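Sample entry follows:

_____
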Amino acid sequence: MKKWTAGHRAAMVSPFDALSYSGTREFRDQTVRQIVHLHRGGERLRLRLSNQFGTRPLRLGAARAGLHLGKGSVGEDTAVTFDGSPGVVVPAGGAVLTDAFELAVPDDAELAVSLYVDGPSGPCTGHPDALQTSYVTDGDTTADRDLDAPGKIFNLNWVGGVDLFRDPGAEPVVVAFGDSLTDGSGTAPNANLRYPDHLSRRLGTAVLNLGIGGNRLLRDGFGQAGLRRFRRDALSVPGLTHVIIELGINDLGLPAMFHQPKHSAAEIVEGLLSLAAQATEAGAAPILATLPPYRDVTHPGYFSAKAVPVHTEVNERLRACGLPLLDLAEVLSDPDDPGAFAPAYDQGDHLHPNGAGTAAMAAAVPL
């Protein structure tokens, strides 16, 4: 029986987060055509638009969705409405769900979402460094199939999700919740080589990526702390069956970088187990991830020899906790030099995996 299922989700971040991203750009009387990669397709869709961290109402004069052909060009497309109206005002701190619209989208396709910002947008709620090129033009060009010399952006603004009305059969609903290793930092843009993308191809189902680069488990900074956003971002996904929880390495590295109070292994493990318990209570199976290797990370101040015992203790306690485990420390470490990042998987900073590394992460997820 067909029902609404989550086809795409993106974790939203405030542009005013002091340790966030350069996403404070505002748009005025412009069309923003944003590209979203869908693991699974359908014929009836709806969009979730968020102004969660906005300081003023977001006025959208028109919206369309279509199949992305590349470089901002759109093939088959359709108008998107809001309670029958072509436009909507999304209140500051609020969100809207569009009307359902018909569009035949195959599996593993790109959806182009064109939004005309009528007036000033205010600083944008969005997802930083989405590893997907999107396009900006002046005026209302939502209905234009091809764009004339558009500007390019790399954040995903306002588009928090895409829902599909389809028969999910026995497919699991999987959320990947984490930091930059989940978000895909270090992989090639526009190539869909994040580990959730690889895992989707392995499973034959959508894997919803709710990673935020730089995100921490215990403290706000690059996005709200994992403990704060878990219920909103992960557990709110309808029909959720599994959640992979990959957080904690930034709770070691970023306090060292920014001269902030350090966290103990007990605090990190207790936080991760708390998220696992919340998932279980919500009826979803949790999979925890060990902390990846991080010796000699090139970001100044991130690696601290004093934190190595904490790193080791966290991983030992996670391996002993009895929950299903994605053992990133084992998967990504150099077998000839434990504690160091495997050269074949290293993006270059000894912290982020390249496309081969993210493929290895996906292959190691326990089924």
In short: The chain has a mean pLDDT of 95. The CA atoms of residues 24 and 123 lie 5 Å apart.
